[in-house]
Amino acid sequence: MSTPPPSSPRSPRLFARGSFLEHSRTAEVLRAETTGGLLLIAGAALAIVWANTPWSGTYEDLRDLTVGPSSLHLDLSLGTWAADGLLAIFFFVVGLELKREFVAGDLRDPRRAALPVAAALGGMAAPALIFVLWNLGPDGALTGWAIPTATDIAFAVAVLAVISTHLPSGLRTFLLTLAVVDDLLAITIIAIFYTDELRLGYLALALVPIGLFALLVQRRIRSGWLLIPLALVAWALVHESGVHATVAGVLLGFTVPVMRSRAAGGPDAGPGLAEHLEHLVRPISAGIAVPVFAFFAAGVTVGGLSGLAESLQDPVALGIATGLLVGKTVGIAGSTWLLSTFTRADLDDDLTWLDVIGISMLAGIGFTVSLLIGELAFGTGSERDDHVKVGVLLGSLAAALLASALLRARNRVYRRLHDAESLDADGDGVPDVFQTDRDER
Q1: Residue 8 has what DSSP assignment?
Q2: Which of 129, 60, 43, 146 is nearest to 369 (CA)?
Q3: Is there a domain that residue 391 lies in?
Q4: I need a surface site. Which of 56, 124, 237, 378 has the fewest CB within 10 A?
Q5: H-helix or E-strand containing 14?
Q6: 385 in a domain, yes or no?
């Protein structure tokens, strides 16, 4: 009697549903980012409206108002405080997210990390290439090559909330992980390519408070009276070193331990310190830091249709807009297709390539970091910086509208998948579909 041939193993699935723990954490993070994204949109809209009224001068006066101690070289404009100071809080949260992803999240497993990493790399390379092709020439415009490479997760999630669509778990986790890798690449680009003058002495001194901060958090010391002063000193020294001060936020976030302390009680000891600090700092980042930065960074005097047309005559604005809309879509979707082709990994059963194109286009919403890089490349308040803002706003708006149309067209499918991921027939707190996935493994 012949034995049946063994069944072939199921090919790996792209955008497959993760564990319930990962699903829950992603949902929690995206809820916080939704609120922050709506505030970000409100702050940017207020700035744009104000900058295009007869009182636009008062907006510029407020943005350029200088405050801070000159003796410490910290007499900065409010706009600079928002970009260098408040965004350091945002990047501290990014550092915490990155540490968690590398230690306990998707980026820990090379197989699961391959998709968001490849997509992030493609989603940065293609927009940069499009910008360069638009701006080949000797006029210095190429310094802005990195502007269209960033994805603004808060803005993207706010768009999802506005259009009332329910992305399935696999796509949501992919979007969040893609944005985390994107932020890591963006801060690396800022540190390497947008540091004009490096003062190694101050940078070496910054290692002292960063090291003390690391020592305290590794010992699970949570006292704000100790951690906050060390963080402020580290920020000031990195700022004085010539490296963009937001890098200090990422470095401090990297020092925080993710796993729970065994000495403190193991798995029952409550959340790890990284999760604890993230819960404390994320509302400040999403609710204050990023919206205030958006308010000071987004205000551009367009000057009506004629002013808009004039801005769009600059290849910088065109390179940014097409980089965000076309480059991000082609880079992310194309990288995913290449990964699928060469690894023979299939899309998850409930998804199509239209879903991949929609989520790739949604990642073309570049705002916070794009505006920051624009200021670093061309100078705050310069004419070319105004053209950067026009390009970022138009590219992000076009990406948001087209992505919304594609994702809304699939909303019936997403709602069915969302309902399946929420059904808990036995009432044990874990949706049935995650238990099925676990049993199949």
Answers
A1: P
A2: 146
A3: yes
A4: 56
A5: strand 13-14
A6: yes
Angle at 376 between CA 102 and CA 141, to 5 degrees: 110
pLDDT per 10-residue tile (average), the chain, 441 residues? 46 67 70 84 92 90 90 86 93 89 80 87 96 88 93 86 78 86 89 88 95 94 92 95 91 89 51 86 92 91 71 91 96 94 81 91 92 90 88 94 92 77 59 55 46
Q: Strand pairing of 76-77 and 346-347? A: unpaired
Domain contains 314: yes
Q: What contacts 398, CB < 8 A, 6 or more positions away?
A: 321, 324, 325, 364
**Domain ranges, residue 363:** 18-194+244-298+305-418
Structure tokens at 80: 């600079």
Coil, strand or helix at 66: strand
What CA–CA distance (Å, rounded) separates 179 from 98? Answer: 10
Written as one letter, the residue type at 26 is: T
SS3 label, residue 67? strand
CA distance 142 to 131: 8
Cα separation, 26 vs 178, whole angstroms: 12
Instruction: Look at residue 9 and tell me if it is in a domain.
Output: no
Q: Who contacts 341 (Cβ-Cβ below 8 Å, separation ≥6)? A: none
User: Which amino acid does the sequence have at 19?
Assistant: S
| CA nearest neighbour of 274 among 103, 109, 152 | 103
What contacts 294, CB < 8 A, 6 or more positions away? 40, 41, 43, 44, 47, 367, 368, 371
What is the number of domains present in the chain?
A: 1
Domain containing 160 — which CATH number? 1.20.1530.10
